[in-house]
Each structure stands twice: as structure tokens, then as C-alpha cells.
Specification:
Bound molecules: zinc ion
Helix content: 10-25%
Radius of gyration: 27 Å
Strand content: 25-35%
Number of helices: 10
Structural class: alpha+beta
Largest sheet: 4 strands, antiparallel
Length: 507
């Protein structure tokens, strides 16, 4: 790929490797939007024949390439020669300080605006970059840095190689006059992962010392909790992404405005770093299972924060996620919302907040040791692959040694959450406390099962007493001997469950 000196058009040759399906079609269809295709070549029929031109049809959205008839499913390749000024996906523009730069931003389906690929999260691939840039520019891209070849006129070609299959929505390059600093590599066993912070020179000291101060520790904490870092290096990059952060495999892009305003903080770094495991290495096969990416990243941002800074981060973090969901406009939609056709609308409090809460509640349901066994097995089994919610359920059921279909149906496929009405009364003659718990959420949401709901009874001379009940029906009553009149009953005092509760006492 050859990038221009400033705004304008770029030119590229994309070598696309593929395997033909069994029922071998004689054409290959690639997504490519709004560019000019100059020619397509493929290796000739005989071993001696070099590249030969292939016929193609391009309607501005799909590139269909005619292939030679062939038997077998061995690896093949075509080379697409193309150029243009991308309307989206790759942004050739000036950075915050007015210097020309180039940054890709692909989620969910904008890689096709500058790369000819099968642009679908179910179809991951390794990627190798060779990017020619003007004098003084540096390039960051997915994978291991291979080398920089100097060329005439001060231009240089930077080569990166990502060997693991990654989703197209994370295939990126960034280029411009950036400063790159090396942090301490993350270490796990004999492996070490280079950690780099790329920024505009004016922002480099801030980036190193504030948001990315613990970039290495965050990676090492994820490795301890989940498993080895999935890729060759990790670069944290100031960029022109439209998102609050974009988890591109090995090259996370953050938007430049929070650097310039000096308000980029570590929470987003923990979220995007967690995506390297969940989203990038283990990828949702279908965007409707986006919670497997965003819910995991939100939960692990909190879990890693708690591992670094203590348990209060966990409690505050989960409470914040729950609040955000309860206030959101999507509580009436199921988390896995297969009816939603606009992919960007899936970036909502269901995929993020509720997805994170689902993991927290699953952990409370199966217990810590089964939860972590399951998470590690899920990563081990599906790393470099793509998954559905059913795959995750199966691994967690194996780890827990029991069926969890009810849990996933209620939390992924039913909309809403339990709205509890809790009425208590104390019988002074019998010195007994009666508590009626009723699920009052809309019938369309269905009923929920809470296998261990804690009720805390305060009052009298001693400390509050906690009792745990298993809530599994629309209405349940419990009675306890309580020598003194309670002053208060609290529901789920540790905030383990995504619910609301109205508590009132009856005379
Ligand atoms: Zn995310």
C-alpha cells in the first residue's frame, strides 16, 4: 500500500489468500466499496506460468473475480490492484496538530472501504502489511514489526506481520509523525510481549505517564486470570478513531481528543486490552453476539481494576454497570437482539453493561472456581477462532458440571430484569418474620431465577443477619424466627444481581 504525502488517493496491491469450498465455485467474491479496481491477477495454469490477468466484475460494492476451474481445496491467491480516495475506513487527514496522517477505523464493516476482503467476523485471517509512507512518517499496524526499507525521496516501506487469524474489523494501519515509546514488556513464563505507546509527540509524555502507566501490568493481570496474551506485541496508539477506543488486534486505537484535553484515563485501556483476548482472539461469529466481545471487555476492565487496586473497584464497577443498564433505553430488548439490523445500534447497554453483569451473575451462580476454570477453558478452546453464545454456554456447563440453559435463556434471550416487590411483616406474638418476594416486571420479560438471593435483616441489638433464598417463581414467601422486631430488610446488599427491589413493611 502506498500512502500519499497528504490527503488524496492511495494505491494498493492486495494479495488475498483463500481456499475454495468443496463445491468449488469458479469465482471469488470480495467486499470492496467505492474504489477503482485496476486489474486482478492470479498464478497461471502451469508451474512455469507467472501471474496472469483474471477477469473481474466490480459494481462498487462487490468484486467478483473469475477463477480457473480447479479441483481440491488447497490454498490459492489472487492479487487485486486498486486505488482511490476512501470515503470511509481509511482516513487520510490531518492530526490534532495539523500534520498529515493516515488511520484506519473498521468496525463493524468498514474494512471493505479500503481492503478487498470477505468482511465478516466469521471469516478471520492473518495479515501482512507493507506500507510505503512519506519521509519522516512512522507506521504502526497489526502484528510483529518485521523491518523498514528505505526508498528514494526519503520514503520508506514498513512491514508488519500478523500470523494469527484476526477479524477484518481489526485489520488496521496507522501512519504519521508519531513518537513510539517502549514500556516494560509483559512477561509470562518464557514469553515476553513488547508493549509500545504511540502518540503525537506533544502527547507522548502524558500518554506514558497517565493512561498507559500500567499498560504492562494490565496485560500481565489478564494473562494471570485468563491465559497467555494472544498476539506478538501490543501497541497503544493515539489515532483518529471515531470510537472511545477501538480494540484492533495488537494495535489499539484511541481517539486523539482525550489526549489533547489530557483526560484519557485507564478504564478504557483496561477495556480495550481485555478485547485482545475477547473479541480479537475469541471473536463473536455474528455481531448479534456482540456481548461476547463488549460485555467481556467491560467486565474484565472491572476485574483487572480490582486485581490491581482492590475489591472496592469491583463493587463500584459492577454497581456502575448495573446503573447504566437500568437507565438505558434498551431494557425492553433482549441482550441477543437478533431483530436488530443496524449493527452500530448493537453498541448499547445490553451488549456492554448487561453483558458484563451476565458474567458477574454467572460467576455468582456457578462459584468462583468453576467460573475461572470455564473462562480459561473457553479462551484455550476458541482462541484464534470464532464463537457463538451457545459455545460459551457449553464450556461453562462443562466447567460447572451442570446445565445452565435456564440462565442463558433468561439473561440473553428474555428482555429486562427482575423487578421485585418485597413485603415483610413481623409477628410480635410468634416472634416470626415473614417476607413475600414477588416478581412484578412486565409479563413480556418473563420470570427470572435467582439461585442465591441474599436478604439482610437489620434491627435489634446484634449485627444485621443475612439469609439466602433461591428465587425461582413469581411469588415466594419465607419465614424466620426473629426474636426482635427488624428495622429494615435489604435485598441483595452486595449488589450481585441485576435487579430492582421495592421493599416495604406491613403492619
Ligand atoms: Zn469495546
Amino acid at each position: 500500500m502506498t500512502l500519499p504525502d497528504s490527503e488524496g488517493t492511495f494505491a494498493a496491491q492486495a494479495v488475498v489468500a483463500f481456499r475454495r469450498a468443496k463445491a468449488a465455485p469458479d469465482s471469488l467474491a470480495l467486499d470492496l466499496v467505492g474504489l477503482t479496481v485496476d486489474s486482478v491477477t492470479a498464478p497461471g495454469a502451469s508451474r512455469a506460468a507467472r501471474q496472469e490477468r483474471r477477469p473481474f466484475a466490480y459494481d462498487g460494492r462487490k468484486l467478483r473475480i473469475g477463477l480457473r476451474p480447479r479441483r481440491g481445496t488447497g490454498a490459492e491467491s489472487v492479487v487485486v490492484f486498486y486505488h482511490g480516495a476512501p470515503a470511509d475506513g481509511l482516513f487520510l487527514r490531518r492530526d490534532a496538530r495539523g500534520r498529515p496522517s493516515a488511520f484506519a477505523d473498521d468496525w463493524p464493516d468498514r474494512a471493505r472501504d479500503w481492503l478487498p476482503t470477505v468482511d465478516d467476523p466469521a471469516d478471520k485471517a492473518p495479515v501482512r502489511w507493507e506500507v510505503s509512507v512519506p519521509a519522516g512518517w512512522r507506521v504502526v499496524a497489526n502484528g510483529r514489526f518485521v523491518r523498514r526499507d528505505a526508498a528514494a525521496g526519503g520514503r520508506a516501506t514498513w512491514i508488519y506481520d500478523e500470523r494469527s487469524p484476526i477479524p477484518t474489523y481489526t485489520m488496521v494501519l496507522g501512519a504519521g509523525r508519531m513518537t513510539a515509546s517502549r514500556h516494560r514488556p509483559a512477561v509470562l513464563g518464557n514469553d515476553s510481549v513488547p508493549i509500545e505507546v504511540w502518540a503525537e509527540p506533544e502527547d507522548s509524555a502524558f500518554a506514558d505517564s497517565v493512561p498507559f502507566r500500567r499498560a504492562t501490568e494490565i496485560v500481565e493481570t489478564m494473562e494471570r486470570l485468563v491465559g497467555p496474551f494472544p498476539f506478538e506485541k501490543l501497541a497503544e496508539v493515539e489515532s483518529s478513531t471515531r470510537y472511545g477506543g477501538m480494540e484492533n488486534s495488537t494495535a489499539i486505537f484511541y481517539p486523539e481528543q482525550p489526549y489533547v484535553a489530557r483526560r484519557l484515563s485507564e478504564g478504557v485501556v483496561r477495556h480495550e486490552t481485555a478485547h485482545q483476548w475477547f473479541g480479537d482472539a475469541v471473536t463473536e461469529r455474528d455481531f448479534h453476539d456482540l456481548w461476547l466481545s463488549e460485555g467481556f471487555a467491560d467486565y474484565f476492565a472491572v476485574v483487572v481494576g480490582a486485581a490491581l487496586d482492590g475489591d472496592s473497584v469491583m463493587r463500584r464497577g459492577v454497581a456502575g454497570l448495573m446503573r447504566g443498564y437500568l437507565r438505558s433505553p434498551v431494557v425492553g430488548r433482549p441482550l441477543v437482539d437478533s431483530a436488530e439490523t443496524v449493527l452500530t445500534r448493537l453498541l448499547n447497554a445490553n451488549s456492554y453493561n448487561k453483558g458484563a453483569c451476565v458474567l458477574h451473575m454467572l460467576r455468582r451462580t456457578v462459584g468462583d472456581s468453576a467460573f475461572w476454570r470455564g473462562i480459561r477453558a473457553y479462551y484455550r478452546e476458541y482462541r484464534d477462532s470464532s464463537v457463538s453464545s451457545a459455545d460459551f454456554q457449553r464450556v461453562m456447563e462443562q466447567a460447572a458440571g451442570r446445565q445452565l440453559g435456564w440462565f442463558f435463556i433468561e439473561w440473553l434471550h428474555q428482555p429486562g430484569y427482575p423487578q421485585l416487590d418485597v413485603a415483610w411483616r413481623w409477628d410480635s406474638a410468634g416472634r416470626r418474620l415473614s417476607i413475600d418476594v414477588t416478581q412484578t416486571q412486565p409479563a413480556a420479560w418473563g420470570l427470572f431465577t435467582l439461585p442465591a438471593l441474599t436478604l439482610e435483616v437489620a434491627g435489634g441489638s446484634g449485627p444485621p443477619i443475612q439469609r439466602t433464598i433461591a428465587l425461582s417463581s413469581a411469588r415466594q414467601s419465607v419465614q424466620w424466627d426473629t426474636p426482635e422486631r427488624p428495622t429494615d430488610v435489604r435485598v441483595d446488599p452486595d449488589g450481585d444481581w441485576l435487579l430492582t427491589a421495592q421493599v416495604h413493611s406491613q403492619p
